Amino acid sequence: MARVKRGTIKNKGRRNTLSQVKGYRFGRSTKKRQAYEAIAHAGAHAFAHRRDKKSNFRRLWNVKINAEVRKYELSYSQFIHLLKEKNIELNRKMLAEIAEYTPESFKRIVDQVK
User: Fold this and answer.
1) How far apart are CA 111 and CA 68, in angstroms?
2) The whole model's pTM is what?
3) What are phi and psi of 26, to 5 degrees?
4) Cα 40 from Cα 46, distance rounded (Å)
């Protein structure tokens, strides 16, 4: 069996790994083993944080809605309860945008609910 020299293939793998860690600091940007570990950790965090982002946005929408509703002597929970009683089906994202950018429209929604 003929001898196989792996230099090119090994370097290609190393080059591909290191191209993914451009901008990382210290050995993670220059050493293949550390770079590979950094990629694995980065991927795990990216996956988890894509899930976290959804709850962070929902929390932000709740804060925006609550801030606007307080002007009309209501709390966030009372407002959501009244919305459900009146069968007004607006999601929190839309309510937050309306509250932030068009407060007069939000006031009309609050008046309908009261």
Assistant:
1) 13
2) 0.72
3) 65, -145
4) 10
Residue for token pair 């293949």:
32
**Cβ(109)–Cβ(79) below 8 Å:** no
> Over the stretch 85-105, which tens digit does the pLDDT of each residue have?
999 999 999 999 999 999 999
**Which spans in the chain are helix H?**
7-20, 32-69, 76-85, 92-101, 103-113
Residue range 8-113 forms a domain whose CATH class is: mainly alpha
Q: Residue 73 has what DSSP assignment? A: T
Residue 73: which region, alpha, beta or left (left: phi > 0; alpha: psi -120 to 50)? Answer: left
